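Risk register update: the risk of archive-format incompatibility is retired. Evidence:
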Amino acid sequence: PAPPALLPYVPRVPPAALPGKLTATTFALERPCCVFDRHANASDTVWLAVAFANASAAFRNPPSRADVPPYEQLPTAHSYMTLETAAAAYACSASSPAVLRVGGDTVCGGQGGRDPCNGPLPSPGPYRVKFLVMGCHGPKAETRWSDPILLRRAGSPSTIDPAPVRHGSDVVVIASILASLGAVLAAAVLCATGAEAWGSLCHQDSGTSTFARRSYRTHHIPPALPQPLPPGCRC
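Archived output:
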């Protein structure tokens, strides 16, 4: 059979900022609109071939749908095919989402079904992908391979800094010291306030006694000189 037509289209991750564009197990691809119109008919399907970047050169297009490499063989074959879609979905007139997600199906792996699985990617890669048009008699057209796509790496628990625990202990110690200082300061304030109040009371008692003595004296008796505070009232 004749080799499939090589299309100039290169798959790529969308350049715009998108939530979840690259994760630890998935990545997004731009939908290839108007790419296959002149090479596909209504009965054809478009597949996505996914391979580890260092294994893409060894990938061989399957001669038929029955020979499509499944997702479950990725660890050993280093490639698989997924996202089987009617070619009409990529036509210029089709109204479809602008982004495809590779690795987004978390329940299809290991079921052994005939439907192609779009399961999570097992490692950060990097990976390369290409689109392949398949007809009743085998491959009809294919795009170029993408540039390597590297996924995000999941954080390791060993990289968590235990310093916040030590910082928390320091905070407790500092809080205890401040509380103790606050208690001492409050006691000092209470002592000073009590002393001042006691002194005022003593002054008030002295004034009252003087007033009482004055009220019983005639106008020709000179007023008494101020009396010193009793020894017990000198606070």
